[in-house]
Design brief:
The protein starts with a strand and ends with a helix. The longest helix has 47 residues. It is elongated and about 80 Å long. It has 13 helices and twelve strands. It is α/β, with parallel strands linked by helices. The chain binds adenosine-5'-diphosphate. The site of adenosine-5'-diphosphate has 20 residues, from α9 and α12.
Length: 363
């Protein structure tokens, strides 16, 4: 299948040559001569590859790469630097910023074409794998949802009274099915976020009320661990415009983590407050805390989370939270000391309205 590249190079001779080289291997190109329209173009059209020159006026290629890597939406598009700057320090800088390859000019046409073909092949394999995982998780969610609904009806006595043993066994199965549904949903969300396919639907809602609803829904967990919750609302701007379900999922994850990683009988506090142009929610616990070595990459998805997967969860919650908050133009941060407790804070911009947000999210 035909692929499409975005080229940013202020030298028309270079970009024309590259366009010709790419067209010979069935890759079409769009050329931009300066970075001013770069992100607008990326938001309007989809591309399989990006080529950046380093020496471009106004915003050099490295800066463009820096901006690109800040935005999770573009992380699956391979970026290739094509530059006459051939010193090791230039190449290392490009690679450290996260480019897929750094090719120096002048380049050998056949070699470049072979490299590009490989990159496209790898990207297609990766896309197919992502698509497979997405299809399987999506298709599994439907029967699991039906099972949950049927068990809820059974437990509510819709098909007749159950005895105590039947109720207990069915409740256990329902818990497992709910957990399975949550896991499938987390895996699907991760893949959709990584593929830039998540559809956020911004609506206006009251953040304080949402916090209250989340704590009510988690009441059973608080009760099981005999923990108490202190809600502290100090914000003047509790009404925000954001994706309700996505923000709820993040708050539920933060609060249930606070419960999970704190002792029996402890207190958990949730604060909603303003700071400058942002409204913030902090979830504060006095639990086990997080070691400095883990704090650095707590919002990343790591292979060793598979270990935790078997014990306490998927390790996907914070990864998904960070991506979703970033799509809202906000931030998530953590402050924690081992043995003393943790404070997770999400910040959301106050000023954004739905229409602006839609533009940002759907690009
Ligand atoms: P999960 O809890 O499902 O494994 P998360 O992404 O929500 O996934 O959290 C990742 C990891 O971060 C947890 O497994 C835990 O090690 C650590 N963590 C998260 N929240 C807290 C907290 N409040 N206190 C201590 N550790 C935490």
């Amino acid at each position: 299948m035909h692929s499409k590249a975005l080229i940013l190079d202020n030298n028309p001779i270079n970009s024309e040559l590259l366009t010709e080289v790419l067209s010979q291997i069935d890759v079409s190109s769009k050329v931009l001569y300066n970075p001013s329209d770069f992100f607008k173009t990326l938001a309007e059209e989809s591309f399989d590859l990006i080529f950046l020159d380093v020496m471009i006026p106004f915003m050099d290629g490295y800066k463009v790469m820096e901006e690109l890597s800040k935005n999770p939406v573009y992380q699956n598009i391979p970026v290739i630097f094509l530059s006459a700057l051939a010193e090791t320090k230039n190449i290392v800088k490009g690679l450290e910023l996260g480019c897929y390859d750094y090719i120096t000019k002048p380049y050998r046409i056949e070699e470049l074409q072979a490299k590009i073909k490989n990159i496209i092949k790898l990207k297609k394999l990766q896309d197919e794998r992502e698509c497979f995982i997405e299809t399987v998780t999506h298709d599994l969610k439907t029967p699991v949802r039906s099972e949950i609904r049927a068990m809820e009806l059974l437990l509510n006595g819709y098909f007749g009274e159950l005895n105590q043993t039947q109720t207990e066994i069915l409740s256990e199965i329902l818990n497992s099915s709910n957990y399975m549904f949550f896991m499938l949903d987390s895996i699907l969300s991760k893949h959709k976020l990584d593929q830039n396919k998540i559809k956020l639907v911004p609506v206006k809602f009251n953040l304080g009320e949402l916090v209250r609803d989340c704590t009510k829904e988690l009441n059973i967990l608080f009760e099981t661990k005999k923990q108490s919750i202190n809600l502290c609302f100090e914000s003047q701007t509790e009404e925000i415009s954001a994706d309700y379900i996505a923000i709820k999922r993040i708050l539920m994850n933060l609060i249930s983590n606070a419960i999970k990683f704190s002792k029996e009988g402890s207190m958990i506090e949730v604060r909603v407050f303003d700071e400058g142009n942002e409204v913030k929610v902090s979830v504060i616990d006095n639990g086990i805390g997080i070691a400095p070595s883990e704090l650095n990459n707590i919002f990343e998805y790591k292979k060793d989370n598979v270990k935790k997967f078997k014990q306490v969860g998927s390790g996907l919650g914070l990864y998904i939270s960070k991506k979703i908050i970033a799509l809202h133009g906000g931030e998530i941060s953590v402050d924690s000391s081992k043995g003393k407790g943790s404070v997770f804070t999400i910040s959301l911009p106050k000023s954004r309205v739905c229409s602006e947000k839609k533009e940002m999210i759907y690009g």
